[in-house]
Design brief:
Shape: globular
Distance between the termini: 39 Å
Order of helices and strands: HEHEHEHE
Oligomer: single chain
Strand order of the largest sheet: 1-4-3-2
Number of helices: 4
Largest sheet: 4 strands, parallel
């Protein structure tokens, strides 16, 4: 199936050129992952039924292992292992904020009160 360029592609590219990590969230089946895959060089899909248990165990034991791979790395449905939020934030901080490292996609509501978030206002 041929990918159709979207307005979101330009926005995502601009964000990746500026920030170490970019979060894409919204309802299921709206093209978040498909768009992100066009920009990612590696990917894990937390909901993959053949790998979900392995990913969750790794996230629990040493989440930084899931961040390995070519950058930008797409972590699809990251909220399945919320510890990945802090792992990504730490990795970006440790790199000095190098842009374009991670793309996180998520479609479920996450309790944001459990996460520290700093934003560029």
């Amino acid at each position: 199936m041929k990918y159709l360029y979207r307005v979101a592609d330009k926005i995502l590219q601009e964000r990746l050129e500026t920030f170490g990590a970019v979060l894409i969230e919204g309802p299921k089946w709206t093209g978040k992952t498909t768009t992100a895959e066009q920009h990612a060089k590696s990917c894990i899909k937390m909901q993959d039924p053949d790998k979900a248990d392995e990913y969750l165990a790794t996230a629990s034991a040493k989440p930084s292992l899931l961040l390995r791979g070519e950058k930008p790395k797409l972590i699809d449905e990251w909220q399945d292992a919320p510890v990945l939020w802090d792992a990504v934030r730490t990795a970006v901080d440790n790199s000095g904020g190098e842009p374009g490292q991670y793309i996180l996609t998520g479609s479920n509501a996450v309790d944001r009160t459990k996460f520290y978030c700093y934003c560029n206002n």
